[in-house]
Amino acid sequence: MELLVLWSVSESTEATNIGFMLTLLRHFRTSFILFLIGTGCLLAFNLSTPHVAANGSLNEPFAFIPLAWLFLGLSAVTFVANMVRTMLGIKRQHLDC
């Protein structure tokens, strides 16, 4: 009987954790997408193979580096803005009670 109770508590806790993660993803969707784009830019830069042209110049996609910084910075700004908005909403709910 105890095993059944522990299993049901564990299952409900896991469902609660999954629901919490989905709620976080819904609230911070924009910052998560910008973070993935910035990480993708860094990954694209690291996976690209630089080569030397016939005239001796280096051909490498350096544009991915500032793009990655731009998207990661925008991700951080939107995350902080959403966090402040969420905290103010929680505070407002507690003051209304």
List keywords for this structure.
two-stranded antiparallel ribbon; 97 residues; 3 helices; 2 strands; mainly alpha
The first-to-last residue Cα distance is 40 Å
The averaged pLDDT comes out at: 81
The biggest beta sheet reads: 2 strands, antiparallel
Tally of extended strands? 2
Question: What structural class do the secondary elements suggest?
Answer: mainly alpha
Task: Give the gist of this structure.
The protein contains 3 helices and 2 strands; from the N terminus they run H-H-E-E-H.
Task: Describe the structure in your own words.
This protein has 97 residues and is mainly α. The chain has one domain. The protein is built from three helices and two strands. A two-stranded antiparallel sheet has the order 1-2. α2 runs antiparallel to α3. Residues 1-9 have low confidence and may be disordered.
